[in-house]
Write a structure and sequence with these properties.
CATH architecture: 3-Layer(aba) Sandwich
Strand order of the largest sheet: 3-2-6-7
CATH class: Alpha Beta
Number of domains: 1
Radius of gyration: 17 Å
Shape: globular
Length: 230
């Protein structure tokens, strides 16, 4: 199987068997949404149908309005259609992190060039939501509750090894988010996934709090990502 086929198989295999803290639920787009699975299949079939190694870039875990809908990390329906040329069957969504990621991808030569070298996913490839006031579900991070982190830790370790086997490169991994990097670094010290982990500011932080400096952050990303060998 080529890389794309392996990723599709990996996506379909994602299942979390763990006792989660009260009011926390797992979000599994590939099992819960036919559209997310179809979009992901089209995306990975288009950009990963080869056997070249990829450098891994890891976010936290899927959010409701990014890969929770599209099945593709840091990609909303708008970018899936306009940048990737994949029809989301009339659906539309806007996710702030996706705006930054695709501006950065454009600066690195566009989607074909970028995805031929890099693979974006998350430290925890399934997302979480928690019930807040009036029964409203909101995004929740794997590290927001120590009990949640301990519950999903075996799943994170298992799925990281699977993705490393698919992508190949272990010299360097890029990790988005300060707190995400803190937790991932501890896991890496214990399990030695990668020789080095490079921290990058999280796209959501950039768009929400430093949007006027977005071009500088794009340059920072390009500089860091371009430092790895061809």
């Amino acid at each position: 199987m080529n890389i794309g086929d392996q990723i599709k198989k990996f996506n379909r295999s994602l299942e979390l068997n763990a006792v989660l803290p009260k009011d926390v639920a797992v979000m599994s787009p590939y099992r819960e949404s036919r559209l997310a699975l179809e979009c992901a299949d089209a995306f990975y079939g288009k950009y990963y149908s080869d056997n070249y190694k990829r450098w891994m870039i890891l976010g936290i875990n899927p959010g409701r309005f990014g890969s929770g809908l599209t099945g593709v990390a840091f990609t909303d329906f708008k970018r899936l259609r306009d940048e990737c040329g994949i029809d989301p069957q009339g659906h539309s969504s806007h996710e702030p992190s996706s705006e930054f990621i695709y501006r950065m991808i454009a600066a690195m030569g566009g989607v074909d060039t970028f995805y031929s070298r890099y693979y974006i996913n998350s430290v925890c490839p399934l997302g979480f939501v928690i019930t807040r006031k009036e029964g409203k579900w909101v995004n929740y991070n794997y590290y927001d509750d120590p009990a949640l982190f301990e519950a999903v830790k075996p799943f994170i370790i298992e799925t990281l090894w699977k993705q490393i086997e698919i992508c190949g490169h272990r010299e360097v991994c890029f990790c988005m988010g300060v707190k995400n990097h803190k937790f991932f670094r501890l896991l890496n010290e214990e399990h030695h996934f990668f020789d080095k982990i490079i921290e990058l500011p999280h796209p959501r932080y950039i768009v929400q709090y430093r949007k006027r400096d977005m071009d500088q952050f794009v340059d920072d990303y390009v500089r860091a990502l371009s430092a790895v060998p061809e």
